[in-house]
Design brief:
With about 130 residues, this protein is α+β, with helices and mostly antiparallel strands. The chain has 3 helices and 5 strands.
């Protein structure tokens, strides 16, 4: 295999790598890490590690329409109280279609480590290694 072909293959394989930066953060008042995109080609908006559940949450760039229940508002923008409040809410609700980003969740620790290494392409910082234990 020529040097040029080898370089092209490596470049194609590493197209997604090194496109995100790891940084310290908080999640529900606990130390964690997040990742943010460094290039426009990065397929994700954000990656967040939940230290309590040991889950990696990934927010993609693609959007989808998702139905959500939101409080019904009057003409002044105030929440309309429910006529017969139930145990969950004391206001009226309406179903609205919202554009939301796709979310992915990874639970297997070896898969989490592999994805974080792939996306950052650096030696994992000590605080990340500690969280992933």
């Amino acid at each position: 295999m020529t040097q040029k072909k080898k370089h092209l293959i490596t470049k194609k394989q590493n197209k997604m790598s090194s496109t995100m930066m790891i940084y310290r953060s908080k999640w529900n008042d606990k130390s964690t890490f997040r990742m943010l995109p460094l290039t426009a080609e990065c397929p994700y908006n954000e990656i967040i590690f939940d230290p309590e559940q040991k889950i990696l949450a990934i927010v993609g760039k693609e959007k989808k329409e998702k139905p959500m229940m939101l409080p019904r508002l009057n003409d002044k923008g105030d929440i309309i109280p429910a006529k017969r409040p139930n145990t969950d809410t004391s206001w009226q609700e309406q179903r609205v279609m919202l554009n939301t980003y796709y979310e992915y969740y990874i639970e297997d620790m070896s898969d989490i480590i592999a994805l974080v290494k792939l996306m950052s392409n650096v030696e994992l910082p000590e605080y990340v290694v500690e969280l992933l234990k």
